[in-house]
Amino acid sequence: MGYRTIVGLEIHVELSTKTKAFCSCSNEFGGEPNTRVCPVCLGLPGGLPVLNENIVKYAAMAGMALNCEIQKKSKFDRKNYFYPDLTKGFQVTQDDMPICQEGYLEIEGDNGPKKIGIFQIQMEEDTGKSLHSEEQDTLMDYNRCGVPLIEIVSKPDLSSGNEARLFLEKLKSTLRFIGVSDCKMEEGSLRCDVNVNIEDEETGKRTAVTEVKNLNSFRGVEKAIDFEVKRHIELLKNNEEEIRTTRRWDDAKNETVLMRVKYTVADYRFAPEGDLPPVVLTDEYIGNIENELPELPEAKKNRFVKEYNIPEYDAEVLTSTKELSHFYEEVADHFDDFAMISNWVMTEVLRRVENIEESFELPFEASDLAELLKTIKKGSINNNAGKKVLREMFETGKKPLDIIEEKGLVQISDTSAIEEIVDKVLGDNPQSIEDFKAGKDRALGFLVGQVMKASRGKANPQVVNKLLQEKLNS
């Protein structure tokens, strides 16, 4: 007996505009509670909304990046419900005429490449935030009221927690690349709700859809879906019925927990937002936005493979953020061993950068790394010395050639100078010579190590190997 997993996502993304959706209040994370508010975002009598044009632009950019059809005419609606974080008693959103429809994002699914459909992208405003104290009091911070959002509604095309995570990772990378959002989950800039149910492929019977909220990481999304899949399969196996529920993910228990049961369909009484006119876009306006759209991650990855002749995995890592890809290309402008750049950036550079998604500000220029790599390739210093230089560059921001001179790291490539050291090492280690002649390969490695130690790591390893082998075989 087989089961089919059906997963759809509702993703809320805060847009990185300078001001809020319908007023001039600052759109910044944090701040003292209730200091970034005005009559409009607080919903006070007489406050009238004025649409921030950049919301339209950013929503259209997101739609284009996700292969959506940009609607020339869309409208805003009022979604009515009552909750302390919603001061007006309704949310300004888009219902039946959203700005973007019918798109997709392609991922490497569980069984190969797979297009995940995008049902629609709608513009809307965020709500306030409830703060719960240890004394069981609930305080309201309305700084977030009116922050511009897009809600991206996927089609139920995802088949596992793994596919959902891959979709979200690619979506985040894409939105960050085009600069419409910072997508910081820890600050609430990207929030995701999951809808999941199971179908018995033999009988066609399906479980009721479960909505999982309060997911604060992509790994949490994956784990919540996997947990729900197992739970729904057990429901089918035991022939149990469960009406539609809303659950939350509990990290401590590693399971979903029931929040509420949906006995009735929510009646939001959608109605056109009378204070905002319809959004009408011309072909010229849409064309101008399309021309401004930067190169997207997938296209950039494919170009890196072709232009720099590096493996697809390397290209995928190097194009994971706009800042990292830009840094790689800057180094490549100054140095043409693209594979060597890739190797050093992915290993020595990235392991010293805590979070490439938040910041890729380095204490040195891309041209400085290129200069260091040129020096290594010329044989002026060896790899180990190069790593020491890079560490110093991270710590002090000094130029690589200055560090090499200060530390005396220039590699000895003069054969006669190295030969003197080799002769002394051979004279001090007669047993290793006998071991080598007896076929023990490790003896050569030991002798190389001794020469490098005697030269304080400055001897050219290739010259050392050549001289030792010549002398041992003679």
Automatic annotation (TrEMBL):
GO terms for molecular function: asparaginyl-tRNA synthase (glutamine-hydrolyzing) activity; glutaminyl-tRNA synthase (glutamine-hydrolyzing) activity. Residues 326-472 form the Asn/Gln amidotransferase domain. It is an enzyme of class 6 (ligase). NCBIfam families: gatB, PRK05477.1-2, PRK05477.1-4. This is Aspartyl/glutamyl-tRNA(Asn/Gln) amidotransferase subunit B. It catalyses: L-aspartyl-tRNA(Asn) + L-glutamine + ATP + H2O = L-asparaginyl-tRNA(Asn) + L-glutamate + ADP + phosphate + 2 H(+); L-glutamyl-tRNA(Gln) + L-glutamine + ATP + H2O = L-glutaminyl-tRNA(Gln) + L-glutamate + ADP + phosphate + H(+). The keyword Nucleotide-binding applies. It comes from the Bacteria. Allows the formation of correctly charged Asn-tRNA(Asn) or Gln-tRNA(Gln) through the transamidation of misacylated Asp-tRNA(Asn) or Glu-tRNA(Gln) in organisms which lack either or both of asparaginyl-tRNA or glutaminyl-tRNA synthetases. The reaction takes place in the presence of glutamine and ATP through an activated phospho-Asp-tRNA(Asn) or phospho-Glu-tRNA(Gln). Coiled coil: none annotated.
